[in-house]
Each structure stands twice: as C-alpha cells, then as structure tokens.
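(Structure overview)
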Amino acid sequence: MCYVLVKPHGVESWCITCSAEGVFLNGGKTDAGDEINYERKSAIYKDIVTFLREKSVIFSENMSKHATKFKEQQQMEKDQHDKALKKEETATFHKTASGSGKSTLEKNQINFVKNQMTRRLEPSLNWKTTLDFKSHRSSVKDSQQEKHGGKFEKVRSSASHGRAQLSSKSADKIEEISSENSSESEEDEEPADHRQEVNVDLPSEYWQIQKLVKYLKVALLDYTQHASQPAYSSLYETTDVEVARCGALALWSCSKSYANKEAIRKAGGIPLLAQLLKTSHENTLIPVVGTLQECASEENYRAAIKAERIIESLVKNLSSENEQLQEHCAMAIYQCAEDEETRDLVRLHGGLKPLASLLNNTDNKERLAAVTGAIWKCSISRENVSKFREYQAIETLVGLLTDQPEEVLINVVGAIGECCQDYENRVIVRKCGGIQHLVNLLVGINQALLVNVTKAVGACAVEPESMVIIDRLDGVRLLWSLLKNPHSDVKASAAWALCPCIKNAKDAGEMVRSFVGGLELVVNLLKSDNKEVLASICAVITNIAKDQENLAVITDHGVVPLLSKLTNTNNEKLRRHLAEAISHCCMWGRNKVTFGEHKAVAPLVRYLKSSDTSVHRATAQALYQLSEDANNCITMHENGAVKLLLDMVGSPDQDLQEAAAGCISNIRRLALATEKARYT
C-alpha cells in the first residue's frame, strides 16, 4: 500500500490511496500538519490510469491521442510485416516451381494440411487433465475391486451395460469433437492461446491450488450424480470420499500462507468445503474443518464462512465423539467469533452448551485450549455470558486457573476477564477463590497471558470487596511494576487495571504514595509513542490527581507540559482521557495558567467538534476549569468556543450541560468586566 500525491492540470492536488484492492481518493492532508485522512472519498478503481481518466477530462483526452498514435504505428508495422511475408512466399513459390516442379509443390501442400489436421485433433490441456484424472480414478477403483473380490462382482454385472453405454457416448463425443470444421477449431484455439498468455503472469502455485479445489468439486459432482443409483453408490462412495479427503488434506497443508488462502478463496473453495461438512465421514471432516480453521484468521474468509452457513455445521460437529474433530471445530469457532454476528449464530445454533460441557474433560490439552479459546471469544457478547453462567461454566473456568499450560491459561483468563464485566460473575469468581489465582499469575512473563490477567484483575477490582483481597495480596504493586514491562500492550493493560484499583481502594492516596518512584514512572510514560499507553496513563493520572498531595507531586514531575504536548491529537480515546486528566490537574496552584502558557487551550476547543459525546463532556469540564484564567477565556473566544458550547447547553447529558454553561458564564463575566473597565 502507498499514498500518492497527484497534481492534475487545472484543479487542486489529489491524495490517492493505492492498495491491493485498487485505487481511490482519500481525505488528503489534514489541517493539523502532515497527517493524512485515510477515509475513502471516491469509488475504487483498478489502477491509477483508470482513476485519472474518470477524474480528469484533460488526462483522458491526452491518453486517447496517445492511444490513436499507438494504433496507427501498430497498423503500419503490421502492413510492413505482411508485405515482407508475401515477398518471401512469392520467392519460395517461384523457386519451387522452377526446381522440383508440380509434385514437390503438391507434397508441401499435403504436409501443410496434415499438420493442420494433427494440430486440430490434438486434445487441449483441460481434456488431457480430465482424462488423466479419470484414468487415475479408474485405477483406484480397480485396485479396490481386487481388494474386495466378491463384494463387487454383482456391481460389475449390473453396471456393465451402463458402462458400455457411457463408453459409446464418450466415443461418439470424441468423434464429434474430432470432426469439427476448421473455422470452429480455430475459434476454439484462439481463447485457449489467450488464456495461456494471461496465465503466464500468475504463479504456478495458484494453478496447483485450483487443481486441488477441482478435486473436491469433481468428487462432490460424481457422488451427487451416482449416489442415488444402487448399482453405483457403494463403488463411487469409497473413491469419491477418498479423493475429497486427500484434496482437503492437501489444501489444509497449503492453507498456512496468506497467498494460498487467497488462492483457495478465489478458486471457489469455500462453498465446496461447506458442502463437504455435511458428510458423515469423520476422516474427511477433519481436514475440511482444519482448512477452514486456518483460513478463518482472514476477515474475507470469516465473511464467506458466515455467508455459507458453516457455523451451524461446526456447532453440530462439536457433539461428535471424535476428539480431533471437536478440537478443530472449536478452533474454527474461536477464529470466527471475532465477529459479533458469528457469536450470536453460535448461541442461536446451541453451540454454547457443548462448549461448556467440553470444559470438564481436561486430559486432551490441545482440545481444551481450543474450547477455552472459543468460550473466550464468545464471551465478548453479554448474552453469551449469561448462558455460560446458566451452564455453570464460570466455576469450571476458575478451576482451570491452576496446573494448566500457558496456551490454556491465556484463553481461560481471557474468558474470565470478559465474564467479570457482569456483577454476578465477579461475585462467583471471588467466592470460588479466583482472585488469588489471578494475582499469582501477575508474576508471569508471557505477554498475552499478562494482558489478559491484568484485564481480569481490573474487572474484579470494580467490586470493593474484591479490591480488599487484591490489595491484601499485593496485587496493586504487581500491577504498578508491570508499567515497566517492555511490551506496550502489557503497559496499557496494567494501566487500565490500575484505574479501578486506585478508585476503589480505601486509602488510595496513601497507597499510591507508598510505591517508591511510582508517580515519576507514570509521568514519564506520557512520553510514549503508543496511543493506547498514552490514553491509559492519562486515565491513571485522572485518578491520581483526585488526591491533592499526589497532584502536587506529579506537578513537580512536569505533568502539565507533557499533557499540553499531547493535545494535538486526532485519537478520540486519547482526547477523552487527556481532557479528563487536564480537568483534574487544573485543581492545583497555577496549573490553569501553565496550561494556557503551553498552548493547550486552542486544541481543546477543537475537541468540541468531535462526534463522540464522551469527548464533549470531558472537554467541556476541562474548559470550564481553564476558563477561570482570563487569558484562557480570550483564547477560547478567539477559537469559537462560545458557539460550540451554546449548542451543548441543550444536551441531555447533565454533566455536559453544567460544564458548558459554567464555561460560557466565565467567558461572559470576563467580557462584562472588560467592558465595564473601558467606561470607568
């Protein structure tokens, strides 16, 4: 992907996004600086030339002129070539006539006609492939017939007449193809040659994947055609299932790479795999589901899987007796459940109960990891969480927090973190002793596990009773120490978990001050380049600043200039938490004035143009605090804050109403005082 700046004749510059999907016009550079608004502003075109033809009349005219000149030059070259050929043929003819006479000329003509006929009767590449495949199928069938001896004797006798008819029809078909006239064969050859020219640019692997997909298709077609006939069903079932199984196994092996996944999708593999899911043969189902599991990591595949109604088949096979099939079905659901609609489909098709029941079998760790992963992703939807509580899955998950490999623990803790968003589940986790197990996991080193554990601990810390246990187990100190972790995801997750811990601790101010160097560490993290880390640290500062002593300490560490430097951002999440942090930091000393001196007021006014109501509320509260300084009021008025705040006075959000009205009141009071001073 790249971004191209185009300066066409007579109009303003265009900023174009060029990607694998095509070319389209984006929003261009923003007023803030060098940042680009990546939102698509036009239709998608296949290339830049097509885009410019549509958008610029002058470019289209110039391209037409060039195309005309190119065609004229091509025609001239062709005429010259034809003249040279005619001269050569004439010279050859005279030489032949004078040298060998009539017999030689007739011989050459006969050879020419013979070559043309040979070329015409030679089978095409597709015909050869079909014959090779059919011969391969025949050899498989013959070997199986020899193996099962008398079992197929009756089938042979009853089917011999049908085979004879089929052979005669095939022979007639070949004769019919061979007896085509020359003009028709030339027309048929022309697109074949064209296909070969086009196919040169594509990698050979693409066509191999296409062949594998065709094996699935042929097996399904043959089985559909012959399964209804008693004479054929037993014979075809064996070979067709085996062909489908081998094709699915090959696709499964190939589906590790992104390029192969795309090739499978473009070759029409998803509908065929969906049809194969309806078979009762477990040996075929395993590679089919395995292929879907690998491919479901891509968003395009997840949409196709949803469209083909594959989720229903995956849920059905969760109740199979085959543990390997259960594992792959659960893993496929885990991959697909990133989408909300898919999570709902799993619930509607009754997939949550078998997932909960599979938690009780802990011997097969691979299957357990897949099942807990599917439960984790399905738990993102609150309706699914209620079902898991009904099936008593929460208690089972808490029991899996010990003596399990990391692959299982990551998913178990992730599921508990999602379930603990509900009050009832937080109570269950606390009563089952889950908080102690979660705090014990905070000393690990696995990045994914730490991210999920911190989220789960933070969700539990919302309850004051759970917060007491976390504090007693030294969980807050462990969370604070994770702010030094080298991974940004772990830092951000730990910071978000600290927010409810500080908020719900009995003596939050003293607890925070007890961590040596803790406040300085938090302020220094405002220098991070990661937006999620910045937003989470701003949220932590908001909670720290509620204590006056801690606010004084972070002010001494330079929190005001660092917060002011972050105000020129377009990230809505960061804007909200940054505005809240500024609002609370204004409560100390000259911080209101200092924010104005560091040019933080004007960018905050622009936040009022956001579409997010939570950003409006946090910004209005920050501006209300800053408006107590006269210079800040002047800056707000110059940047058009009054008109934006007047619209928000009528908001249904009471906190937003009060903050907007208070800010307007301070600005108006300053204006009246200035006017009064002018006349006295």
Q: What stands out?
A: Confidence is low (pLDDT under 50) at residues 92-206, 222-238. The longest strand covers residues 23-29. Strands lie at 2-6, 14-18, 23-29, 36-40.
